[in-house]
Amino acid sequence: MNFLLDNNLPPRVARALSCLSKPDGHVVIPLRDKFEKNTPDIEWIQSLSTEIEEWVIISKDIGITRKKIEREVWEKSNLTAFFLVKGWNNIDFWDLAWKLVKWWPIIVDQAIRIQSGTGFLVPVSGSKLKPFFSR
User: Fold this and answer.
1) 3-class SS at 15?
2) CATH number of the domain within which 49 lies
3) pTM above 0.90, yes or no
4) Residue numbers of the domain that contains 76
5) Number of domains in the chain
6) Pairwise pLDDT comparison (135 vs 109), residue with the higher score
7) Cα–Cα distance for residue pair 104/118, rounded to 1 Å
8) Per-residue pLDDT at 135 exceeds 80
9) Contact 6, 40 (CB under 8 A)
């Protein structure tokens, strides 16, 4: 499975997760390795949705779910997304990195088991994902 961490998450976290996930056959890349850094959300979401490979988005940009056009594009894209909510913006790099590594097996397991196009909210603490949008 392919995972894309958008520009509000550090690229080196994506690369670390990719190294950790490679033995399981997963690829994790930062958005800026696939698209220009300033590519609008609508463009990269639409582009990923047309690819043969299945992509899963990891993002701290909850605005994708709140802005009418971005949300419509995401919902139509059939991309699965995990949105890191409340608290993720208020932690430093190393806390974000280890917390995301801690969540990673849960995120991967959920991404494998569910239907494409589903969305989840990932709290900064705890161990349960909150379904946000499902097909």
Assistant:
1) helix
2) 3.40.50
3) yes
4) 2-133
5) 1
6) 109
7) 17
8) no
9) no
Strand order in the sheet with 119-122: 27-30, 2-5, 55-59, 80-84, 119-122, 130-133
Matching residue, tokens 């494998």: 112
- pLDDT, tens only, 94-121: 999 999 999 999 999 999 998 888 899 9
**CA atoms of 60 and 89, how far apart (whole Å):** 7
Q: Structure tokens of 47?
A: 């582009």
What's the CA gap between 104 and 112, in Å, rounded?
12
Q: Which two tokens stand for residue 14?
A: 């994506």
**CB of 120 closer than 8 Å to CB of 129:** yes
β-bridge partners, 25: none
User: How many Å apart are CA 100 and CA 127, to the nearest integer?
Assistant: 11
pLDDT of residue 65: 79
- For residue 47, CA distances in Å to 42, 51, 53, 124 come to 9, 7, 11, 29
Q: Which residue has the tokens 């709290």?
A: 123
